[in-house]
Amino acid sequence: MSGVNGVRDTADMPQPLPAWYRINARVRGVSTVLGPVVLVTGVLGPSVLPSVVTPGPASGLRVAGWAVLVLGLALTFLPTVPRIVSRSVGAPVTGRWSAVNSPRTRVPSHRTHAYGQTFAVDLVYEPEGRSRPAFGEGPGFRPPEDFPAFGEELVAPGDGRVVTVRDRARDHRSRSTRQALAYMILEGMVRELAGPRHILGNHIVLDLGDGTYAVFAHLQRGSATVRPGETVHRGQVIGRCGNSGNSSEPHLHFQLMDHRRPLVAAGLPFVFTEVSVDGGEPGEDVPADGQTMVASGR
């Protein structure tokens, strides 16, 4: 089965990532944090710490801050993606889900490499007999309970160890109209300043071994059933779908990456095993935007 980036997965063990791709991720993450810090120091230093940051060094800090920040942004939106063998993992959900921002449609799937989400996918629950509220119809800020995905169980895609658990963020209302979505974009800018955890919302990071980490983002508040250091097994329920963080509606944001910290991680391509896409035969696949995936999750 071809991976989402067109490379056939024939190896039993994941292959090493290109060095430049790893370095890109590390430099990108550090630059997007260090750049603003240096820039602000250059701007405020002369008035806040006049004995330490004089006008001459302050000018140099401002230039350096802008340079580092621009470098980080350039690497964040770099259009080049290496050809990497896809990892085969179990589906992180059960039942009938459709894809949004899929790596099968576009890479980077979310139009950015930030936080290791180059090959990430968003999954929304589409159960038989219950429709999901359509975008643009009805109120712009719906309660999360209006969406069938809210509260649905999420399962481990393989055996591994729990690295990170965050589940104290609130589940906010949806952003279901153009006006509400514009508000979300502004809100997202503020979240960016606060760091990855405020973008991901409630989330779990699993170490699947062989340098592969899985991220479950936008979980329901207080729904995590695991804690850091615990061992999990494929198909084990680890939490529930929510609408926390930078999310327009209840859904699961799932991705694989090469580092436990999303800030400096490089994204990894993957295929789900034993899933049926648009009514096809069960196998290894990832649904494209708008396609429906049925998964046992076990």
Give a written overview of the molecule:
The chain has helices at 19-48, 55-76, 178-194, 196-200, and strands spanning 87-90, 95-100, 121-125, 153-155, 160-166, 203-209, 212-217, 231-232, 237-240, 252-257, 267-268, 270-277, 283-285, 292-295. The strands form 2 sheets. Strands 1, 2, 3, 5, 6, 7, 8, 10, 11, 12, 13 and 14 form a 12-stranded mixed sheet that branches. Strands 4-9 form a two-stranded antiparallel ribbon. The protein is built from 4 helices and 14 strands. The protein is an alpha+beta fold and 298 residues long. 41% of the residues are buried. The protein folds into 2 domains: 19-76; 87-295, Glucose Permease (Domain IIA), CATH 2.70.70.10. Residues 6-12 have low confidence and may be disordered. α1 (19-48) packs antiparallel against α2.
Write the layout of secondary structure elements.
Layout: H1 19-48, H2 55-76, E1 87-90, E2 95-100, E3 121-125, E4 153-155, E5 160-166, H3 178-194, H4 196-200, E6 203-209, E7 212-217, E8 231-232, E9 237-240, E10 252-257, E11 267-268, E12 270-277, E13 283-285, E14 292-295
Parallel strand pairs: 1-12
Antiparallel strand pairs: 2-3, 2-14, 3-10, 4-9, 5-6, 5-8, 6-7, 7-10, 10-11, 12-13, 12-14
Number of domains: 2
* CA-based gyration radius: 20 Å
CATH class of the largest domain, please?
Mainly Beta
* Uncertain segments: 6-12
Give the overall average pLDDT: 90
Instruction: Indicate the percent of residues in helices.
Output: 10-25%
Structural class: alpha+beta
Beta content: 15-25%
